[in-house]
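Pipeline run #58 for the internal structure catalog. This entry was flagged by the ingest filter as a single-chain record with no existing model, so it goes straight to prediction. Upstream metadata was stripped on purpose; only the residue string is passed forward. Reviewer on rotation: M.T. Logging verbosity set to normal.
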Amino acid sequence: MSQPSQEIKPNALDRIIGWFSPKTAYERMSYRAGYMATGTPRRHDGWTPMDGTAEQINSTSRELLRRKARDLERNSDIANSIVGAYVRNVVGSGFVPQADTGDEELNRKIEKVFNDWQKKENCDITGTQSFLEICNMVVRRYLIDGGILFIKVHGGDGKIPFQLQSREVSDLDGDMTRSYESRGNTIVGGVEVNEYGKPLAYHIKILTGDGWDTGNKVRIDANRVIALWQKNSPSQVREVTPMAVAINRVADTEDFIDTVSLKEKILACLAVFIKRLTPTAGNPLGRAQKDVRTGYDRTKLAPGIIQELQPGDDVQAVVPTGQATNTREMVSLFNRMVAAGQGLSYESVSRDMSQVNYSSARQGLLEDKKTYQRLQRFLIDHFLDEVYKEVVIAAVTAKVLDIPDFWNNQDKYLTHTWTMPGWSWIDPVKEVNANKIAVQSGQATLASVCASRGDDWQDTLRQRAKELKFQQDLEAEYGISFNEGGEINAKEGTIDADDEPKPVD
């Protein structure tokens, strides 16, 4: 009888069954050669996970996970180091749109309109956040809450009649589940969907000015809402915080650090205990009252405390061992696991560069860039492109932009790209030389090199042209020349030390 591929040997019962039914014996052996994880070893007792659709699983945990993540955001430096790494690298100095209509003059006009709209009084309905600050908030709320909502508001007092109203995902009426139906559609956690799961409307709570629920809600059509969360399963309708996998690990790390910190504080205390042969009348100095719950005396060890003991009392010290000696290794391990779970390197979260060299640091940065670029791409596809389109359309509607055939050629006039924030390299000389060789050999372009640094290649060339013209004017006026290193070579007697270079138009 042939053996299964995992070398599972037949036992006595298999041989007996094989005499009567070789097929049955083979199937028995094949089943034993399946997934080892389907077994229940002693260390996995009680591990019986639930399964179901995304919403069946997520709906029971979504609120609690979000509350825990928000608590870590308020109180955990480790959680904030993760969020800070994403905000710094994903948003950085901001996203810059580049219009691509085929008309350079019109491109500059559109870019200026968008730049003016980004000011806090124009883009935010509350007038408190610039568009850069809104983008920072988007990344933070995506990581902590799992997502964020924006309601498109058309109108207002600004030159461009379009603004954004931000709402938290917890503002959705999560009590509205499939038992509620509207217009024949199903409502899942406040999101109204059709039979294919496409969002049609959002049912949002109406809150008071200080955030209390009034008990009322409003239905807003999906075409007026930008819902930012990532869909990880076909049946998923609402968000789940990406911090879910890190919550327990971060909490364990914080608890471990607090425990070690308390131990070190106790060890640092100098205390004196006085033991008398005769009792002291009343409560001795420093002796606390009894705890009403346990009946034991409340005691506290503080630096410099002098404590009297009753006759027969003795002092026994409990000194935990091990925590202080391996604290660094344990905290580093926890941080490394938390960072890996979020797609980041240990160094980017801990800011500890003591164990890297140039090669390992560069490799870690390259992997981190892929993580950041994935989120940047998500923001462009689901948020920035939508905002850009709404701003340009609002500007055309308000006659801020004069484009006569806009409505017949929207695709042409809405074409654009985004310059994303770039990253500085560990060794700029090596990177510059590599970029120079790549451009000269045709493996890269000036546009791609500038984009990797977060620069606009056209602006770079324009600025460089201005600098060269200014340099030529200086050479003509003062009789000087510049070498390749930028140093000035002045002819003797052609320039006076008191002369002030005149600005060149």
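catalog note: The two ends are 93 Å apart (CA to CA).
catalog note: The chain has three domains: 1-41, 53-246+342-419, 263-330.
status: ready for reviewer M.T.
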